[in-house]
Each structure stands twice: as C-alpha cells, then as structure tokens.
Amino acid sequence: MDIILVQPLVALIAGILILVWPTVINYVIAAYLILTGITGLLPQLQG
C-alpha cells in the first residue's frame, strides 16, 4: 500500500473512532502516531 493512501485512511478511521467513542481518544492518538511513524520509516528501512 502506498504511504500517500495509508496516512489519510488512518486519519479518517481515527477521526471516526474519536467521534463515536470519545473516551478512547488517547488510544486512537497513540495508534495513529505509531502507524504514521511506521509508514514513514518503512521506505527508509527498505532501502
């Protein structure tokens, strides 16, 4: 999957989860940051 598609998709899912279930905001933000970091590092790690 292309990073250009992954980041907006993850942001959209995170936003929907925050709207539906506001108490889970810390977990959603943490998961978003982890996934964004991984998708940002993958091209560097692959060479």
Can you tell me about this structure?
- The chain has 47 residues and is mostly helical.
- The chain has one domain.
- 85% of the residues lie in helices and 0% in strands.
- It contains two helices and no strands.
- It has helices at residues 3-20, 25-46.
- The longest helix is centred in the C-terminal third of the chain and has 22 residues, at 25-46.
- The two termini are 17 Å apart.
What portion of residues belong to β-strands? under 5%
**Helix and strand succession?**
HH
Largest sheet: none
Q: Give the strand tally.
A: 0
Global shape? elongated
Q: What would you report as the Rg, rounded to the nearest angstrom?
A: 12 Å
> End-to-end distance, in Å?
17 Å
When the domains are counted, the total is 1
Arithmetic mean pLDDT = 81
List keywords for this structure.
single chain; 47 residues; mainly alpha; 85% helix; 0% strand
Condensed summary:
The protein is built from two helices and no strands.
List the helices and strands and how they pair.
Layout: H1 3-20, H2 25-46
Helix pairs in contact: 1-2
